[in-house]
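Topless-related protein: structure, please.
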Amino acid sequence: MTSLSRELVFLILQFLDEEKFKETVHKLEQESGFFFNMRYFEDMVTNGEWEEVEKYLSGFTKVDDNRYSMKIFFEIRKQKYLEALDKRDRAKAVEILVKDLKVFSAFNEELFKEITQLLTLENFRDNEQLSKYGDTKSARGIMLAELKKLIEANPLFRDKLQFPTLKNSRLRTLINQSLNWQHQLCKNPRPNPDIKTLFVDHSCGQPNGARAPSPVTNPLMGAVQKAGGFPPLSAHGPFQPAPAALPTSIAGWMTNPSPVPHPSASAGPIGLAAANNAAILKRPRTPPTNNPAMDYQTADSEHVLKRSRPFGISDEANNLPVNILPVAYPNQSHGQSSYSSDDLPRLVVMNLSLGSVVKSMDFHPVQQILLLVGTNMGDVMVYELPSQERIAIRNFKVWDLGLCSMPLQASLANDYSASVNRVMWSPDGILFGVAYSKHIVHIYSYQGGEDLRNHLEIEAHVGSVNDLAFSYPNKQLCVVTCGEDRVIKVWDAVTGAKQYAFEGHEAPVYSVCPHHKENIQFIFSTAIDGKIKAWLYDNLGSRVDYDAPGHSSTTMAYSADGTRLFSCGTSKEGDSYLVEWNESEGAVKRTYHGLGKRSVGIVQFDTTKNRFLAAGDECSVKFWDMDNVNLLTSIDADGGLQASPCIRFNKEGILLAVSTNDNGVKILANTDGVRLLRTMENRTFDASRVGSAAVVKAAPAIGAFGSANITVGTSIGDRTPPVAAMNNDSRSLVDVKPRIADETLDKSRIWKLTEINEPSQCRSLRLPDNLTAMRVSRLIYTNSGLAILALASNAVHKLWKWQRSDRNLSGKASASVHPQLWQPTSGILMTNDISDTNPEDAVPCFALSKNDSYVMSASGGKISLFNMMTFKTMTTFMPPPPAATFLAFHPQDNNIIAIGMEDSTIQIYNVRVDQVKTKLKGHQKRITGLAFSHTLNVLVSSGADSQLCVWSTDGWEKQASKFLQIPPGRTAAPTADTRVQFHQDQIHLLVVHETQIAIYEAPKLECLKQWFPREATGPITHATYSCDSLSIYVSFEDGSVGVLTASSLRLRCRINPTAYLPANPSLRVYPLVIAAHPTESNQFALGLTDGGVYVLEPLESEGKWGTSPPVENGAGPSTVSGAVAGSDQPQR
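Here you go.
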């Protein structure tokens, strides 16, 4: 095979990988033998896919090729053999010995005999050489390290372990270039050809004057469907009649949704390259950080946005719209020709003195004489320009400090100040948002005049909130934020509920630019490392990953009509770049000249009239014509501007606000701007009255906006919302809004905590029990949900099983059907060893195996292993002292158990070999909780010392520790239990203490939220997540049970003891433990001080425990994001 043919295989491999043809990729790797994918090999070995491992290796080497190859195959087959022996599968072991290992006997007969003798041993670890063999996972890991060394040393793998450095979508680029050449050779080239096939050469054919250019010509090489064959590359007819070129390539990706449920589509360049029938964006393969050679694009490869021009093609020819959506500048119907540079606002008409440094400005989108300003001191001001009057001001102040996260509270305690990073009006001007340098976003509602009201306070990010914008996904007004924590988030602008969180940037996110094409909403984001990403409003990740010019901190903005995309940024070295993007190619279309080489700060820019660009640079304002890369003109506004001033046009482009170095703002105007200001100068500002440039049209309520024609993003005010008929009432927006705001407030007042006081208000069942009633110390549902296991303080276990019946078809635990207190025919009880201790003084603990076959348990004495079917004691081990106080099975290996001890240590114990592997020391008092995260590979421990510790399960090193924050004015018992439980996501951690419920984030143990009960309920006795992690069930010493919404830690339902306990004033009974059903999210069980066990469920007519309170101040229903709930009352 020639060198070029070999390179073509690499291009095909890259293409297949980008399109997620996973099996085909690896098949081609194997059949070609050109690239050995070490990551794929590691995954197969780790998972024990031995047949696939050998099949993949066969493409590169055979057993007898050399000594390295022989050793590779021997180690794999030996491991397979040992695993069969470990499973006591002698037949399988013999088969492996005969079929796989016998081939090595010819090379080392003694070794083969020794391997054969392992069959005679009860445990092959009795062989001295294998005595240190651990479990399967660790053995595979050790072998894998050895295999990698052998492969790297094997000359047959030389030059096959590194994938060549390629630009993204290199094969597509080559085809696009070929089509450009073919189009160049057309006798009658059309301006916007519609590419339909790659099977034959492109030709435009004969011209036809009656046909107009296609408004949307999909970019080349969109998605390749996995079902239904390869569709035509264009989803459109040959040439559709249409007036003018409107949408750019982003509409091309997303017009015609695919009929395939989960289509595969090219990530393409920054324009998110067109999908045709499968027109959904797809995430490109992200370069790995740990081993870029194992992927198909390296982390430092140049991206397509830097794609070089084909040799010999002029700038104009290279930009021929063969595979892009047309941007027909000369023929645009936007009235460009009616504007000249004389229309730019150049005349200084006023100076506003603010008293602090201007950080961000925005003109009202409708009442264009209003200017919103934010400063470095956290001040937010609204100016009415004709009168030069500041009509509203708000200083930085957290509205409800009690709802803030602990890190924010600590930060504010140290320094109660914050700078404004961004201010922006909503498209209709009813709201505006403020992004601060400390965690917080404020949303204000503006009713006109001085009527400025607090609307939402959202703790949006950890650290600085760097940017904010409004958007309309699903016709719902939302706020998009980004921050220092590298995340982009989308919030409901009415409720503050978090809708989406987009993660993927590797550096703080600097700016966001929401936009839409046709009916598709998307967001561009930029980070301080110069990365540009794009997101749809889903959870499928970033669709593109490209570099801004100069790897600069960049802002992006569309022209007012939404057809052209620009960005401006400044690199760390001070080099600034103002560019226009070719969206479909993800490449820079043109770079504008004239910005300074060593800018101070990050250059800001704005667009106006679909014609001009302006940037604040070198103490001046610089202007460009969008179609000309050379500087049009520059003005210093009579001097005194900041080095890199903030600038902002009003919607019509007749006023321009520029920040000055004396903490002020200069307003520049053209002739129309001067006329507007004079016209309004003698009028007292009144939002209910409209002027020539302040036409207020009726619009729908916030959150119910139906327009698909609003351009949001940097040019957010460039389109006026359409009129919406509300009961045939065409009142102005300012007339409608107060009513809507009142309705929202009324709803929040109407909500009430659900109180359950009577037995008729819920379903409850006390489980039958004919054994001695003793305090229930531990309680758990079996993993199948068919039974409940309790451990009483007298060291006896009780097991209740539900049977299938007409009333209970599933056989699962239910409050509607009585279970059976189950005992084997032998009549024996599962009773723990109690040694010489008093069971009442012991700390009972147990853990259930994944298959419900075994329970490991202790009550102050030895640890016992019981068979759940026969109740027989399988073994006992670890006699005290110290006694075990908490038990947890390793999630991947039931032979490994973490045992928390009375002496504050944690012992990692291997049941099979009866050996303590390691002891973990970090607590000062007994261990009261253990929880594994298989996602993070950590063990979290908690103790009676109110301390949390995080341990790596790989080497058992301590990664972090933190003491619980006891609320002021509350004292905890000196040995109070602290329990831990992981959320379904295996990252967020529920921490339960008698004084509080808290949510932490592992592995750093950042406290995200806390909730403190009322004094009247007494201490918390226990708490647990529901099976879906959406609720938290909390039991109290007064007998009540609270149901919290997990995401916001807000109490939504209280079940009082009178609802499930019979009245008995002389007997104080309350739940000590609470357990959640493993599949029924609204069912839980209580273990009581009197020995009773109750199962509780809501009424079938209700279906759930209460309703969540309306979200206020940013505590969304789907987020765990940093607010402290001060009590169990509805938080205001």
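Notes: Residues 36-153 form one domain.
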